[in-house]
Amino acid sequence: MHRLIINKLGPIERCELDCVPFLTLTGFQASGKSTIAKVIYYFRTIKEDIEELAQKQAFNAVPISGMEDEYDVGHGMGLKKRLEGCLREKFLSTFGSSWGMPDDMYIEYYYTETCFVKISLKCDMEHQTPNYIWVTFSYELRKFLRENNDCFSMTPLGVPEDEIRLFRKKLYEMFDDSCSVVYIPAGRSMITLLSNQLNYIYANMDDIQKRSLDRCTKDYLERTLRIKPEFSDGLRGLAAYSRGKTGVSSTIVRQALELVEKILRGTYCYSNGEERINLDDGRYVKINFSSSGQQECVWILNLLFYYLLQQKQILFVVEEPESHLFPASQKYITDLIALVSNSGHSVVLTTHSPYVLGELNNLLYAHGISAECLKKAEKIIPQSLWLDYQSFDARFVKNGMAENCMDAEIHMICNERIDEISKVINDDFDMLLELQCVNEKGAV
What we know:
Radius of gyration: 24 Å
Mean pLDDT: 89
Strand content: 15-25%
Number of strands: 16
Strand order of the largest sheet: 7-11-12-3-13-14
Number of helices: 18
Helix content: 40-55%
Low-confidence stretches: 66-75
Structural class: alpha/beta
Shape: globular
């Protein structure tokens, strides 16, 4: 099982946790939930970084007439050195400048007992930059990078597909991870609001402006722009086109569609260059004129459904799926995330919502219900949504720590964590009620 260690990064003072298939992070604003989610994203995308760098290295090894000097830049720099540079740049674009970070900051990720990557800070005469980002690879990973330094050949059509598949297989085995990462950040509605102008705005940004975007938002933005045209016939059209080409059962696809339509209160499509929500009465509303709840959730729903139909495994990092949603819709979007998780994907979920946490508890409880009650329980909550506690973990992020908030006996999220804010509200009410009672007694 993968293991993550964070020491003094952002609001997080110390965090150690196992990265289970379904990880839930809750807690107050600015407590560090997003920091943990971004660290997971940072390490889990290193596979893709290596593959991209290896392909670029193969391309750069082929001189083009008249441009030999251009291709000599970085000549002799091995895959390991290139990866170190890539990870430094990725750290800065994900977490910001290291200059204001404490000297003893480090993040570490164990993919297996013998394969790990550590990022720390170093300040010495060799590197004049304050808090130089230092990258440490395990021996096994260094050996892998050395042995695969020139693993690709180059043809007029590029790197052969069979070589890419073989290399990817080796990467998956090395990192014990076959998931691609899809990061869905908070604050999505502004990107949705600018839907019609987004292609123009992004196309006219120069490289410096694009680099100023944080890495996770840039990844999300480029991903949505790239796959948007595939929704020209809506989600049902996408499902019909994928029928027979995916291993997902028609029952699961139907359940997903029903949940999406309950949440969105309509159906999404990309038509004539604009995003629309088609309503039940035959009318439609442009996405930038839809409700704030629809704008916030539409691309969570689209991405979950799109990758549900794909053959490859995904790690979804979903921040605050409940934003601007009515409690019933918060329940349904939690159900959809659970449905996708149970279809072979992994999830990191951040939330402030007691409704989301409460529904997760229902799904955990349903999975552990006695055999005698299975059929009746499935009529209440479909079995495809039930969550196995052995693949689930929940952490309450507070005071720089990520405390385990699972009840070890009943294998559910502790109620006091779910009710923490309700307790504050109820305590205030009790004190006001007591004050009123004392006042009335005094008046008598």
